[in-house]
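not sure who needs this but someone in the group chat was asking about Aspartate aminotransferase from Bdellovibrio bacteriovorus so here u go. i didnt clean anything up, its just raw.
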Amino acid sequence: MIQLSKRAQNLKPSPTLFLVAKAKELAAQGHDVISLTVGEPDWPTFKGASDAGIEAIQKGITKYTPANGTVELRKSISEKLKSELGFEYSPKEITVASGAKYIIFSALQMICSPGDEVVIATPYWVSYPAMVELADGVPHIVECGEMENFKITPEKLEAAINAKTKGFLFCSPSNPTGLQYSADELKALAEVLRKHPQVVIISDDIYNRLVFDGTKVAPHILTVAPDLKDRTVLVNGGSKAYSMTGWRIGWASGPERLITAMADYQSQSTGSPSSISQHALLAAIKTSEADIKGVVDKLVARKNSGLKELETVPGFKTAEPQGAFYFWVDIRAHLGKSYQDRVIRTSKDFCDVLLEKFFVATVPGAECGTEGFMRLSFAVSEETMKRGVARMKDLVSQLV
């Protein structure tokens, strides 16, 4: 019998990908399943990127590249960062990998020694704590609820940092809430972080172009605290803004020593990222500004339509998202009730019944570290969301 490692025995599958698989299994059985789980745009990859991917195949741009990505792509990312945030990064301060998720994973691998802590606020993206644990680190979870508008405060960040703290990992706009940190909020967090120079800041910027206030990019900690640049890792990728989820391409920019270590780690694990995906991303960066604006307009319309639908469900309260494409829905009014002979005690119970009996797949808030809520993706058509919410209303009407 194969003896699995302790790491393997403790490993949990991604909750969102598990739910996606379960939804597909029910659909294969003939059920009309509405999936509001995975953070994946329903619009196609932009034409400029798709055409470049085809071109890469046709022209034989299909060989290994440097482990940290082609120089041409890293220079383009550098220009993008200069344009959006006003900061200069040399190609040596940028690495490209097989998805932004792997970028975060490799960054944590390179900063964490056994027992090191990484501060993560709730509600968080489901994979953050597991990735810290896989780096032999300890996720230091800080509960941030409705009172904090689901964002970490300077006081809570200060209280969480200790001699073992090695990193602070956060996402803005947030997955799962869609809320974002304002410039003033980031400035206040920066004042705390200045006191603790051992803390590496990992800023997950994957949704920073999908913002709803008319600005080009979400507020960033480095724009209010440029002095923290030498210990901040900026994470981004093609998946969300460019709808390149299946292309698996992401990047990081940051201090050269850490970026070089991440690139070396990638060379020993995944090798180089796909040459085809890199060529497509290069085109996306150069040609997709109008496409992104169109997507943001579409998401604003879907947000407004979805909020109106959710307001019709008794007991639901929904935070209005400022970016990304998620609704963070408060379902606490329905916990403790029963559906037929089943008591709904937790968000997982609620979401399980919603999927198994009403065929709507959602993400329980407990998977994001916050009980009593659920996450819905509105990267779906307005009609699909309307149908999904109608089924939620049907479930709520049958709870006693």
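also The chain has a mean pLDDT of 97. if thats useful
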